Amino acid sequence: MGIDEPDIDPERFLDDIEMRIGEIVAVEAFPEARKDVYKLDVEFGNETLRSAAGLTMYEREELLGRQVVAVVNLGTVSIAGFESQCLVTGVDGDEGVIHLQPERPVENGTRVY
């Protein structure tokens, strides 16, 4: 009963996708990118990964310390010479991309399922 896509095997989805909660610990401008994105450092407990994320509706200081939901096993993608190691999830809003976050603070690195 997918909305736009056919149903998938739920066990296979959980086998293939690893999403974790991380905390944004650094935000940098990224003028070299073709799209309006930031360079982020996201801490997942015992590891920090970098991400190019289109969260520019937020001020950089506003993002620092926020928890986000990220896909951490997509491999590395090079964007204008920057190695993006995870995908911070979000949804389109009226003013730009709104990041997804847990309802309450949880330990960084917590798996999303």
Report on this model:
The protein is mainly beta and 113 residues long. The chain has a single domain, classed as Beta Barrel (OB fold (Dihydrolipoamide Acetyltransferase, E2P)), CATH 2.40.50. It has two helices and ten strands. It has helices spanning 10-16, 60-63, and strands at 19-29, 38-43, 48-53, 67-71, 77-79, 82-84, 87-88, 90-93, 96-99, 111-112. Strands 1, 2, 3, 4, 7 and 10 form a six-stranded antiparallel beta sheet that branches. The longest helix has 7 residues, at 10-16. 22% of the residues are buried. The mean pLDDT is 92.
What separation lies between the terminal Cα atoms?
19 Å
Structural class: mainly beta
Largest sheet data: 6 strands, antiparallel
Briefly note the CATH topology name. Answer: OB fold (Dihydrolipoamide Acetyltransferase, E2P)
Number of helices: 2
Q: Helix amount, in percent?
A: under 10%
Number of structural domains: 1
Per DSSP E runs of 2 or more residues, the count of β-strands stands at 10
CATH superfamily: Nucleic acid-binding proteins
Arithmetic mean of pLDDT: 92
Q: In sequence order, what are the helices and strands, one letter per element?
A: HEEEHEEEEEEE
Can you identify the CATH class? Mainly Beta
Low-confidence stretches: none
Whole-angstrom Rg? 14 Å
Assign an overall shape.
Answer: globular
Domain TRNA-binding: 13-113
GO molecular function, one term: tRNA binding
Keywords: RNA-binding, tRNA-binding
Organism: Halococcus morrhuae DSM 1307
